[in-house]
Amino acid sequence: MTSHSAIVLIDCENLTSLRQLESLGRWAGAGRVELFGREASMVPWRKALARRGIRVAAETPIPDDAPSQAADQAIARAVRDMAARPVPGPVVIASNDRGFAADIAHLAAAGIMARQDFDLEETGLLRLVVKETARPDGWAAAGGVGDHLIRRFGLDIRGRLPALAVRAGITLRHDRTGLWLWLDGD
């Protein structure tokens, strides 16, 4: 879950994997979601966000014949605009492109919290699904988590859960009802 005041800038050209489209729930609750990229790259994002009930507030389409870094440059311009007229933030740049460190620093210098979200690896996917499937008391059933990971992300963690949980900062509890997972620090 992302802060209600958050602004999420999605680099649709850089994040194209099925895992990314399935993990967009981590931006649910954001106050504003914006898409950047060529029309063909924005279509799957538009559909995936709509399926999750996440409204797209703005789109910055890039011409098909534009240079490969055009979407990145459009995101950088949006960041400069936000820094010039401070926004409540935080600002999340969703991209695997390593070139956004200066933009994050620019926002921080303007007093705006910012971060970059990359493709989630196994530990990130495990944390996301535990958070999404947890009961009100914070515990998630390991079987349900494993099922979600396989169905949504093609990630089979059988036999690897204890080691993966340690790396992901997740506590395991086994009781008479089964194996349960808890996000440490949440």
Question: Structural class given helices, strands, pairing?
Answer: alpha/beta
Largest sheet: 5 strands, parallel
Strand order of the largest sheet: 3-2-1-4-5
Order of helices and strands: EHEHEHEHEHEHHEE
Mean pLDDT: 88
Radius of gyration: 18 Å
Q: In what range is the share of β-strand residues?
A: 15-25%
Please mark out the parts with pLDDT under 50 across 5 or more consecutive residues, or reply none: none
Q: Would you count the extended β strands for me? A: 8
**Count of individual helical segments:** 7
Specify the helix fraction band: 25-40%
Structure in words:
The chain has helices at 18-22, 39-51, 70-84, 101-109, 122-133, 142-153, 161-168; strands at residues 7-11, 32-37, 58-61, 91-94, 114-117, 139-141, 170-175, 178-183. With 186 residues, the protein is of the alpha/beta class. The strands form two sheets. The protein has a five-stranded parallel β-sheet, sandwiched between helices. A three-stranded antiparallel β-sheet has the order 6-8-7. Helix 4 links the parallel strand 4 and strand 5 (114-117). The protein is globular, with a radius of gyration of 18 Å. The model has no long low-confidence stretch (mean pLDDT 88).
